[in-house]
Every structure is written in structure tokens, then in C-alpha cells.
Specification:
This protein is mostly helical. The chain has two domains: 1-96, Orthogonal Bundle (Arc Repressor Mutant, subunit A); 102-140, no CATH class. 45% of the residues lie in helices and 7% in strands. The protein is built from six helices and three strands. A three-stranded antiparallel sheet has the order 1-3-2. Helix 1 crosses helix 3. The chain is elongated, with a radius of gyration of 22 Å.
Length: 141
């Protein structure tokens, strides 16, 4: 069958666990440049995940220059150097850095926001072209 990732435990999204396993296999020599990866549907079935999860993992791995795919031929490990990942803003999923209490950070942020402005002002409609202060800031910028 070929390469089958072992996914680490933890709260990270599954697609990133697949990418991490791929990067680890590549850096550890278990996958070599030119090695063919299993088809996405087969990998999804073997891992017990949705096809879109594997598709997203392969897209991220391609973005990091870990793999390359050609329609009709398959997906292969690239010979180039992997690139460092950037902050992924494609989904509304908060990052899960170790040691941070996300609910407490959100609570603190909302409290600080409400100290500067009222909830009514934040939740109401704003003038289309912006407030006088916003237009002045835009004009000076």
C-alpha cells in the first residue's frame, strides 16, 4: 500500500496532523523524493476521515512544497526543500498554541473592547462611508 501516516493525538485539525506526519516521514527518510503517495480517496478510507480532510492536507502539503500532484499520474514527494508554513486564515479555526488559555484570552479581549465602546455601538449599523473620525484617519493616511 505504501505510506500510511500515524496521526498524533491532540487538538490540532486532522488535516494538519496528516501534513505533519508527511513532513516527518520526509525528513526522517521514510519517504524519499519521487515516492508515490496513496490516492486521496484510499488514504481517507484507511484513516477513517472525510475525503475533504485529505484533500485539504494535500493542498497544504503542496503549498509547503512537500508534494506535487499530476492529474492521472498521482501525488509524489518533491525533491525540493520544504517551505515553512504561514498562518492559515482559510478557515475560522483559532490557533491552539501550547500553554495558552484561549477562553480566558477571548474573555479579556472582549472586556477590553467593551471598555472602549458600548455593545450597542459595536452591534449597530455604521455609516457607509465611515464615521468622521474614520474618514479623517483615512484621509491623513
Amino acid at each position: 500500500m505504501g505510506w500510511l501516516p500515524v496521526l498524533e493525538a491532540g487538538p490540532r485539525p486532522v488535516y494538519l496532523k496528516i501534513v505533519d506526519a508527511l513532513a516527518d516521514a520526509r525528513s526522517g527518510g521514510r519517504l524519499q523524493p519521487g515516492d508515490r503517495l496513496p490516492p486521496q480517496r484510499e488514504l481517507a478510507r484507511l484513516l477513517g476521515v472525510d475525503l475533504t480532510t485529505v484533500t485539504r492536507a494535500f493542498s497544504e502539503a503542496r503549498r509547503r512544497n512537500l508534494i506535487d500532484a499530476t492529474a492521472g499520474r498521482g501525488t509524489f514527494v518533491t525533491p525540493g526543500e520544504p517551505e515553512e508554513p504561514v498562518l492559515d486564515l482559510s478557515m475560522n479555526i483559532p490557533p491552539a498554541p501550547a500553554g495558552l488559555n484561549l477562553p480566558a484570552l477571548i474573555r479579556t479581549g472582549i472586556e477590553a473592547l467593551l471598555k472602549r465602546s458600548s455593545a450597542e455601538a459595536l452591534l449597530s449599523y455604521h455609516p457607509g462611508p465611515g464615521s468622521p473620525a474614520e474618514r479623517a484617519a483615512g484621509s491623513s493616511w
